[in-house]
């Protein structure tokens, strides 16, 4: 199979979601047309009235290179009227249940000859991201950078963590000492120009390019900037984040963009599942924080979500530099440390109009938010503008409001 055919196949796989609720994982395939998917037999039954109108039509042509199956028995016209129990859905194979869309040949290169990477991102944006976001408000892309570049980004993040650059995520205007009950992550704010963050900067540039190709087609938004990247770590000691909304009060953020860095991650063993409740309903979408996975969703009240506890710890020797005395008993040289940390990098993109309204609220003394803005230009993020907007949300406590001539972090949410 050539690269173009593989790319088209990957794009087709990314369009797989439950026809009723939009869930994108652990899907079942329609046993008749084999082109529609459902998260459960119950959802297939509920959707049958609509699906049967196209299921019969899709069954007629057989795609090339697919082994023919016996044709329908006589009376096929009435077969579509029967309940789908007689043609039960089949579990999608692993590659289809976790669709992958490649963003380019080589994630480590900003461009390839003839603009292949740019063309690939544009196709991904217009054929996958835009329709998926406008229909479901959520989109998952696997294999965004490729394994080699993804591992390089992970290396940057681990170096930040090991050198103590992370601080406890906190809540602004908290009235009690309950922050750890609400969220247990550690975070670091990255502009991308810091030493040792070159691959993180590359990831941010790829995200910007993708959003730039989508701009003008994502809902009614006009995206003109973003926050710094928030690198978050959930140590494997049961830490998580309770159900919340990123932008509940119109601070300007319209799209939440998350990149996951968790190699060989399994929910059963490690936890850390992101659960989204589209429209605030009881139905939910589960997103596993798998390595090299990119997730996008609307930042407002349409997508309440939670990070379920991340586990996996072990008893390990303390570093000698942490021991105050070499004569300490053996038990004092042991420390419960996480074997696996859940890493994610989050960027929020701003809608120009909503952000302007948020700034106006601040200037007129109304309740609003303190947020940084990074303008997106053709040549990337060329300058920064910090609007002094305040209010109740999340923030890094080490970055209080400061003059606009300096960069600041903002009230945001970790995933």
Automatic annotation (TrEMBL):
<dbReference type="InterPro" id="IPR002893">
    <property type="entry name" value="Znf_MYND"/>
</dbReference>
<keyword id="KW-0408">Iron</keyword>
<feature type="compositionally biased region" description="Polar residues">
    <location>
        <begin position="406"/>
        <end position="415"/>
    </location>
</feature>
<dbReference type="InterPro" id="IPR051559">
    <property type="entry name" value="HIF_prolyl_hydroxylases"/>
</dbReference>
<dbReference type="InterPro" id="IPR044862">
    <property type="entry name" value="Pro_4_hyd_alph_FE2OG_OXY"/>
</dbReference>
<keyword id="KW-0223">Dioxygenase</keyword>
<dbReference type="InterPro" id="IPR005123">
    <property type="entry name" value="Oxoglu/Fe-dep_dioxygenase_dom"/>
</dbReference>
<feature type="domain" description="MYND-type">
    <location>
        <begin position="18"/>
        <end position="55"/>
    </location>
</feature>
<feature type="compositionally biased region" description="Basic and acidic residues">
    <location>
        <begin position="79"/>
        <end position="88"/>
    </location>
</feature>
<dbReference type="GO" id="GO:0005634">
    <property type="term" value="C:nucleus"/>
</dbReference>
<dbReference type="GO" id="GO:0008270">
    <property type="term" value="F:zinc ion binding"/>
</dbReference>
<feature type="region of interest" description="Disordered">
    <location>
        <begin position="391"/>
        <end position="415"/>
    </location>
</feature>
<dbReference type="Pfam" id="PF01753">
    <property type="entry name" value="zf-MYND"/>
</dbReference>
<keyword id="KW-0560">Oxidoreductase</keyword>
<keyword id="KW-0539">Nucleus</keyword>
<protein>
    <recommendedName>
        <fullName>hypoxia-inducible factor-proline dioxygenase</fullName>
        <ecNumber>1.14.11.29</ecNumber>
    </recommendedName>
</protein>
<dbReference type="GO" id="GO:0160082">
    <property type="term" value="F:hypoxia-inducible factor-proline dioxygenase activity"/>
</dbReference>
<feature type="domain" description="Fe2OG dioxygenase">
    <location>
        <begin position="222"/>
        <end position="351"/>
    </location>
</feature>
<keyword id="KW-0479">Metal-binding</keyword>
<dbReference type="Pfam" id="PF13640">
    <property type="entry name" value="2OG-FeII_Oxy_3"/>
</dbReference>
<feature type="region of interest" description="Disordered">
    <location>
        <begin position="63"/>
        <end position="117"/>
    </location>
</feature>
<dbReference type="InterPro" id="IPR006620">
    <property type="entry name" value="Pro_4_hyd_alph"/>
</dbReference>
<keyword id="KW-0862">Zinc</keyword>
<dbReference type="GO" id="GO:0031418">
    <property type="term" value="F:L-ascorbic acid binding"/>
</dbReference>
<dbReference type="GO" id="GO:0005506">
    <property type="term" value="F:iron ion binding"/>
</dbReference>
<keyword id="KW-0863">Zinc-finger</keyword>
<keyword id="KW-0847">Vitamin C</keyword>
